[in-house]
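Hi all, long-time lurker, first post. I run a small reading group and we've been trying to get comfortable going from sequence to structure in the token notation. Rather than ask abstract questions, I figured I'd post a concrete chain and ask someone more experienced to write out its structure so we can walk through it together at our next meeting. Sequence below, copied exactly:
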Amino acid sequence: MSNEKIKVGSKAPLFEAIADNGEKISLANYIGKYNIVLYFYPKDFTPGCTKEACSFRDNWDKLKDYNAIVIGISSDNLETHKRFKEKYKIPFILLSDSKKEIRKKYNAEGFIFADRVTFVIDKNGIIRSIYKSQFNIEAHINNALETLKSLSVKNESK
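-- Answer (accepted) --
Happy to help. Here is the structure in token form:
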């Protein structure tokens, strides 16, 4: 799958990884139950990544209103994720991708720096939005909320 181009309309590549709480997480367990905001970020405790995580945290209630879960992924280890999550009161899952295997599946490797990219995946496991910007950090949450809102409207009209 890693050689295929991931795009809006693609089936989200499945993966398993260990979460900040030590539990094994499988994306497949959330498909069919939730909309998923999956975001890749470079590094815990850096200014941009902290701002991004906090923007998802500060919009947590809105995200839950759209029946969405958030999964943040970086190559930081689990201990760093735990400290980051505690310090900033992050209410969502952080996954460690130290070998960058999940990044490869999502074509989110970056060139010099790890990519900052957010995917919105609907309940059927289909990627509905991809937003990539290293520096326009606030736009990640805004794009996710807009996409979730449009999914909500589509579901209401069925």
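A couple of things your group might point at:
The longest strand covers residues 68-74.
The chain has a mean pLDDT of 92.
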